[in-house]
Amino acid sequence: MRHSRIMIATVIAALSATALVGCVGTTTKADVTKSPKPSVSASPTLTPGITKITDTPGSGTGLVGALADSTVSQCVLKSGSWSVTGTVKNPTTTTVKYRIYVSLLSGSGSTRALQQVDVSAVKAGATSKWDATIATAEDGLNCVLRVERYPA
Q1: What whole-number distance in Å separates Cα of residue 58 and Cα of residue 116?
Q2: What does the pLDDT look like over 15-68, one tens digit per residue?
């Protein structure tokens, strides 16, 4: 009985080794020197995003991130352009100015448009309206803001 168990174990080990050799295969020099060929994927062609800014984001002196100071009232596609409106409220005790960067992003997160809106001389505690019209008819975009506050 003991002898037959050893024989069965030996046969199983031999079959396992044979199966593994079949999986490994052989590699030739030609296989190693081959380089992968690029593949072409069919994806929709997007026109470049629209950018209308005069100041590089984060480039001003005395910058304070102020996203909480701003609200978006409207972000809609109307007659081939995006209409974005909102307000900024100055929570400080001095007059400030704002740079608002309005981004229109696709569902995959790519920036389809970026436009700067400047709001100057917002007095302490005051609220001021702002708006942007972005000339793109691309549908299904999301509005995202970057708001910077500077001393006036």
Answers
A1: 12
A2: 444 433 443 444 444 444 444 444 444 444 455 578 899 999 999 999 999 999
Q: Which residue has the tokens 């003991």?
A: 2
Angstrom distance (rounded) from CA 73 to CA 22: 66
The model's confidence at residue 138, banded by pLDDT at 50, 70 and 90, is: very high
Q: Which residue has the tokens 């920036």?
A: 111
For 57-88, write each residue's pLDDT tens digit: 999 999 999 999 999 999 999 999 999 999 99
H or E element: which one contains 73? Answer: strand 70-78
Distance separating alpha carbons of residues 122 and 102, to the nearest angstrom = 19
Q: What CA–CA distance (Å, rounded) separates 23 from 25?
A: 6
Domain count, the chain: 1
Q: Residue 37 carries which DSSP code?
A: P
In a domain, 4, yes or no: no
Assigned token pair, 50: 């629209």
Instruction: Identify whether 44 is part of a domain.
Output: no
Q: What is the CATH number of the domain that holds 61?
A: 2.60.40.10
The parent domain of residue 68 ranges over 50-151
Cβ(141)–Cβ(106) under 8 Å?
yes
Q: Is residue 45 included in any domain, yes or no?
A: no
On whether residue 1 sits in a domain, the answer given is no
